[in-house]
Structure formats: C-alpha cells, structure tokens
Amino acid sequence: MAGDLVHPAPLLLAAGLLQVWGDPAAVAPEELAAQLADLLDGQALWDPHQDQPWLRSEALAAGRIQLPRWRPPDPVLVERHGNAILEAWTAAVDRFAADMVRIQAGNPDDLAAARALGPLAGQVLAVSLPARGGRFTWQVPPRIWVAGPRAEAWREVVRDSGWYELDEAAPDLLVIDAGPGLDPSGLP
Predict the structure, then answer these.
(1) pLDDT digits (tens, 9 = 90+) for 49-107
(2) Which of 50, 87, 106, 171 is disulfide-compatible with 145, CB 3.0–4.6 A?
(3) Helix, strand, or coil here: 33?
(4) Nearest to 111 by CA among 120, 123, 102
C-alpha cells in the first residue's frame, strides 16, 4: 500500500484517527483540528526519553492507557479537509517533539493497513491491537533478548537503535530469529 499512496502517510494516519458522524464534507475544519489536538497527546505522540506523568506507577494503576483508534480514513474527509488535517497533525507533532506515534487498530486488517502506510518522517509508527484479558505492562526501555542463528547481528541492530535494553537473564520480550530471510546487516 505504501507505494500506492495518493496522499502523504501523515495525512492518511491522522484522518484515520478522526471520528465524523454524518457528511464528512460538512464538518468544520476547526472541529477536526480540535479533535486531533485531543487525540494526539503525550501517549500517542511519545518521546521515550522524556519523563511522562502517565508512565508513573500511580497513573498506570489508576487506569488503562487509551491510545487513539485508527481505521482507514474516509476518502471524502481526506479530499475535502486534507490541508486542515495535515496542519493539525504537524502542530501536534511539533508540540510533543515525538519520536514515536502510538495508535491502536480495531482489527488485524486495520492494523495491516496502518502499517502499510509506510514510514513517517522522523517518527516510528507503533500500531497495536487492544489487549484482551488481563492488564499488560512493560518497562521503559523494554528489555529484550534475541536468540537464533543470526542473533548477534540482530542484537547489534537492537543495541544501535537506542530504544531497547538487551537483557539475556530477564527479557520482557524474546525475539527468535528462525534463520534465512531478512538480513539484519542491511538495516539502518
């Protein structure tokens, strides 16, 4: 999908977060900008290097983190209000100086569509599905370990990213390299 985009990925991402009832062409651009400003907070536009009040244990214990829900955007909304949506997106990204955009998709198809938007300029896009069952927590930075035939090359990629802590003894996430396929030496 990324190669087939007619509109820039940030526009499609932001427009997919908006909820519009009724005729999308009739909604006021100011209403869309206000909705995006509410949705794109420090949880959605995240800088992992900054202390965030919602990451403190008392805030986490009080309730679940609510990420904005993404769905493929309405084409009429994108065509009619694209400039206003992009302006609101840019203002929010500038306000938070985010390294990561964190959103939820309602189902696996929407998750795949969001990921297919391609790279965002300056941000990592993290799309998740809502958790089912018990509460899920993690620490920042997440502790991971990589095992498998090319594990050392993958660990080097992880080490260079600066996003994770390598921890063989107690990882939060274990990544298993099954063998041939993606070559980690070609990753940035």
Answers:
(1) 666 555 555 555 555 567 899 999 999 999 999 999 999 999 988 888 778 888 999 88
(2) 171
(3) helix
(4) 102
Strands 173-176 and 143-147: parallel
Report CA Rg, the chain: 18
Phi/psi for 147 (5° steps) reads -125, 155
3-state secondary structure of 17: helix
Helix 9-17 vs helix 75-96: angle between axes, to the nearest 10 degrees?
100
Q: pLDDT by residue (tens digit) across 11-23? A: 999 999 998 888 8
Q: What is the dihedral of CA 89, 91, 92, 94, to 10 degrees?
A: 120
91's tokens: 């203002």
Residues in Cβ contact with 65 at an 8 Å cutoff, skipping those fewer than 6 apart: 43, 54
Separation of first and last alpha carbons in the chain: 22
Q: Which tokens hold the place of 130?
A: 């809502």
